[in-house]
Amino acid sequence: MKKHLVILILGILLISCLDKKKQDDNKLLGNEVVTFVINQFPNNHDYNKEIYISGDFEGWSGGREQFKLKKKNNNYSITIPKYRETINFKFTQGNWETVECLENGNPIENRTYAFTGQDEKVEVNIANWYNLVENNQVSTASKNVHVFAEDFEIPQLNRKRKVSVYLPPNYETSNKHYQVLYFQDGQNVFDVKTSYTGEWEVDETLNAMYNEMGFELIVVAIDHGGNKRLNEYSAWDHEKYGKGEGKLYLDFLVNNLKPEIDKTYRTKPDHNNTGIMGSSLGGLFAHYAAVKRPDVFGQAGVFSPSFWYAENGFKFTEEHPNNTKFYYLIGDQEGEEMVNNMNRMVELMELNGFSNIHKKIEPNGIHSESFWKTEFKQAISWLFINQ
């Protein structure tokens, strides 16, 4: 009798656990889905290639196996559950070098889908793939932008990375020392030729600011790590997306790259003259770096931060108050979850000793470089000029 009772109790517990798991899965994924169907391609599309969807719901990885589209009769499709109210995404052939683009090779804006409360099917046309027209792209980088290293060593992660540097227009004709800004997602900072979603036009903006007001700044742009981008820009492990490598990546910036930059160029190396900036997951990392190392970074530009990815970041921030200048930006069209998380973080910081914060929620702002580049001048002025 006792044996049967034990078996019965164990059975009830097992059913309860399965029900809870099902509830948790439903909470994570949502009950509604959208199915994207691609049925039109450029004439030179290779149907032997796989196609992936990549977006803010999976960390802008460029192409994860679980987000590979199914192919049938030269049509591709994928069903995406409701990860959040609104998702931003693009299609690739496995990495950002093969992202979809306009017919002439120029980047397109991020695609956006807002869940409606019911299942839907959305048909998509692909105008072109970036790798098919890349050679036709003309570099838009200014003459005062150069490649510092094509393959700078990241010993902490056993990887290499391209690093580009913008120097003020008067750098070669002066003996001045300059403030420095470290920028994430370096492919998108200076040059439309290397970008996969459009460029920030940081060099054009800073050249104009120099001509208008004499503002001078060195910018160090570090390319992201492709399919390692998500891991490198988060300091915390993620149940679905793997190990957080942000601590190691920050150690690389502080102890390997920054000393080389300070040795090579006439910089002002102290924290009051050193900033960090990024958007999306790069914004998450810029926030973490400035919270973790206020002795290194005195300014942080945090655009459209992906706080959804790292819940542990809230507790970590609460425990590390400092006087670094933080500039937070988000567009009200980036989704309720994104806006609410940024508001939650800023409120937490204001309640726990952070005293140097600026927050901006821009009406009609979207999750894209076209939005961020229009806001760069205002952010950089608050961070570096209004001191």
TrEMBL record:
Record keywords, A-Z: Hydrolase
UniProt keyword annotation of Hydrolase present: yes
Keyword 4Fe-4S: no
Transmembrane feature ranges: none
One example GO MF annotation: hydrolase activity
Annotated source species: Jejuia spongiicola
SUPFAM superfamilies for this protein: alpha/beta-Hydrolases, E set domains
Protein name: Alpha/beta hydrolase-fold protein
One matching Pfam family: Esterase
Lineage: Bacteria, Pseudomonadati, Bacteroidota, Flavobacteriia, Flavobacteriales
